[in-house]
Amino acid sequence: MTATFITGGTGYLGSYVVADLIERGAFDRLYLMSRTTGEAGVEKLWKAMQLHWTAEKFYAELPKIELVAGDLHGPGLGLTDRARERLLEDCDSVLHVAASLNRKSSKACFNANLRGTLSVAKLVRDIAEARGGLRRFGYVSTTAVSGEREHEVVTEDASIDWDRSDYDPYARTKKFAEHMIRELLPDLPIVILRPPTVMGDSEMSQTAQFDMIRFYTWMVDAPAVPINGDTRLDFVPANFVGSAISELFTKPELAWDCYHLSAGEGAKTAREHEQVFQAAGIRTPFFVPGLNAPTMALSGQLAGAPRGTVSLAASLMKVFLPYFSNDVVFDNTRVVTELGRRPAPFTDYCVDLYRWVKSVHFEYPYAPLPARPAKASAATRAAE
Ligand SMILES: NC(=O)c1ccc[n+]([C@@H]2O[C@H](COP(=O)([O-])OP(=O)(O)OC[C@H]3O[C@@H](n4cnc5c(N)ncnc54)[C@H](OP(=O)(O)O)[C@@H]3O)[C@@H](O)[C@H]2O)c1
Known about the structure:
Elements: E1 3-7, H1 12-24, E2 29-34, H2 38-49, H3 55-61, E3 65-69, H4 81-90, E4 91-96, H5 106-131, E5 136-140, E6 152-154, H6 169-184, E7 190-194, E8 197-198, H7 211-221, E9 224-225, E10 232-233, E11 235-236, H8 238-250, E12 258-260, E13 268-269, H9 270-279, E14 286-287, H10 292-302, H11 309-325, E15 328-330, H12 333-339, H13 350-359, H14 374-379
Parallel strand pairs: 1-2, 1-4, 2-3, 4-5, 5-7, 6-15, 7-12, 8-11, 9-14
Antiparallel strand pairs: 10-13
Bound molecules: NADP nicotinamide-adenine-dinucleotide phosphate.
NADP nicotinamide-adenine-dinucleotide phosphate binds near residues 10 and 71.
């Protein structure tokens, strides 16, 4: 039997990875770590997978998935001895996708992204020791590890720079997590996968992740935006990122051990975004780059105001504006060479995405889990 252990499979990108791994038939079994198991865990998984699968498909594939109770915050990931033994016995690879993306909370990022990744690294080491080797350890990181930059094309090898400041606790902890993995597991086959800003899907309008696209629609609807029209925006669709993670994780040989899953120099400028909205008859804002510094300063102050719409808007501005205004793109030569494909340009689908997220008021219309067919209920049990 071939099996792998995955963290974060119930999240937005994780759901794409799980769907793609199953479609590829890469493993007989996926052990998905989740804080929620049993029937509630199956419901949570359905919430994630309904973006990709009908209920019928979900129940058909469910027997290949085993939910393993675990938490990045817990000692030893909170795994029971029995679950740990099974992972050591069955899994020849680990894919670590889970993280806290709470850019405002040092505590959440520290606990999930550092303490949690340390526990995952220790489990990987134990699996490799128990089995006398490991096929691969995949770590989903982020291009945000490259820190504060402006007007640059960043390559994988030039990304980590310890003399550079980080945007936020999320970027800082993901950066140190990469370092920790490399230091602790120097002899194991590791692949680090760094998506840039992920928004929407180039093949459907629906998304289940709204933070960044909410900010994007605000910018489209604003009378003026504090960015330069020539700024390149390295935004990629989740379907490209999910399938790239899945393929790079399962490919027998890889030429490199770190990949940007980005648009690179194919990234479109803000002005090219403006053109597709105008062509669709949607009014667009003026570019006023001179407002960037005052906007950042003001949002820094207002983000600390008592909880409310103003502080929320200011926090979003403070956290996301640098990703829209700094004109930084991430070289994607490696991923394009390795996979022979590149992400669809964001401008191909941004208008449909914009219209859809507004039509659902930034909330995915989740469907409840339909009744389980009699045959499937016996097949899947959550490991305690
Ligand atoms: N989305 C992007 O734009 C983007 C861009 C670059 C990189 N990334 C990276 O991609 C990965 C996935 O991001 P995403 O957007 O899919 O995030 P997401 O939708 O928020 O999913 C996060 C996943 O992590 C799990 N998780 C969080 N805290 C946990 C804990 N304490 N214990 C166990 N599991 C925990 C969540 O499980 P629950 O279901 O239990 O909450 C969920 O499955 C992350 O490593 C992120 O750094 C994302």
